[in-house]
Structure formats: C-alpha cells, structure tokens
Amino acid sequence: MKRSNRNGYATILTIVTIGILSILILGILNLHFLNHKIIRSNESSIKAYYLGESGAALLKNEVDNTFELFFDEYVVMLESEETITESAIGENNLHQKNEQSFKNFVMGKNEVRGLERVQQEEDVFDRYTDPHGWRLEVVYDENEIRLYATGHYRKARKRIVSIISYPNVTMVGEGDEKHHYQYVPSEILIYYQGYEGDFID
C-alpha cells in the first residue's frame, strides 16, 4: 500500500515537473520568436526609411540637374536682352528678376514638367533580397517644390517629405568687376517623416 502511494506521488510529481518544464520551454520559445519578430520588424523599418531618404535625395538631384539643363540657354537669353541691365533696374531688383524669370523660363519646358509625376519602382537595391521599392512624387507649388518619397521593405513603409526652394540664377560680380551668372541649386527648406495624408494622389 505504501509502495503504491509512493508510486502515485512519484507519478504526480513527474507530471507536474514535465508540465512546469513544458511551460518554461514554451515561454522561452515564445520569447525567442517574439524577439526575432521585433528584430525583423526593426530591420524592415530601418531599410524602408533608408529607401525613403534615398528616394528623396534622388528626386532633389533630378530637379537640380533638370533645371540646370536650361541654365546656358537662359543666360544667353539674358545677355541678349538689352532691357535687363543693372543700370536700368538696379542690382537688387536684377537679382530678384533673374530668379523669378529663370523659374518661369524653365517651368515651360517639357523636361521639367515631366518630373511632376508619380514614379513607382520595385527592387531598386541589388543588396536587398526581400521585396522592396519606393514611390516618388514631385509637386510644384508657387514658391517651393514638394518632394514625396515612400520607401517600403517587406511590410514596413516610411515616407519622407522634403520641401525645397526652386533652383535659380544669381549674378556674381561687384563694383567695376564684370558680372557673370551662376546657377544655384535648390535648398532644403523643410525635411521630415510624413504620413499617408501627406501624399497627393
């Protein structure tokens, strides 16, 4: 009888021990998978953000390079117009007129207007093996240019909003020195991580 009780206690103890060990093992496995999921999610977010930043930088370069294509043509036009002279309208007004006129001159070009579209591209980086890409958009406002870039990696999405000035042309040279014209690329005015409502569809 006593042996039977001992066997019963041993069986119960074994079952309880196995149960506790099972719970501990399941808990450890659950923590492991949760930690792996968090690491994977963070990795995706970082890569999506990098894609967004890269897309925004690409858009800015495209804007600057496209505007610069027409710099020489614009300078030739300026130098051929006898009415646009420093003696006629003053140095400060000439600077302002050059900037405004260059914007108006360039905005009539198809190459510049062609940037104002949505660009969707997948698998842009060879070193990224998982599904990824970006969505890029340029929007021309009256006094600024808005750049929208959304990078996505796996299920993560990060949007970068960059507001830049219009590239312009400035006059260089003071006093008796003969002035010449210089192309001035755009400047970043505002830069932040945006949200769904920031995109123009």
Strand order of the largest sheet: 1-2-3-4-7
How large is the share of residues in beta strands?
15-25%
**Major sheet size, sense and barrel closure:** 5 strands, antiparallel
Integer-rounded radius of gyration: 31 Å
Whole-Å distance between the termini? 82 Å
Taking pLDDT < 50 over at least 5 consecutive residues as the criterion, the unreliable ranges are 82-92, 197-201
- State the helicity in percent bands: 40-55%
Report mean pLDDT, rounded to a whole number.
81
Treating each run of at least 4 consecutive H or I residues as one helix, how many helices?
5
What is the succession of H and E elements?
HHHHHEEEEEEE
**Strand element count:** 7
Provide a descriptive summary of the structure in words.
The chain is of the alpha+beta class. The protein contains five helices and seven strands. The longest helix has 67 residues.
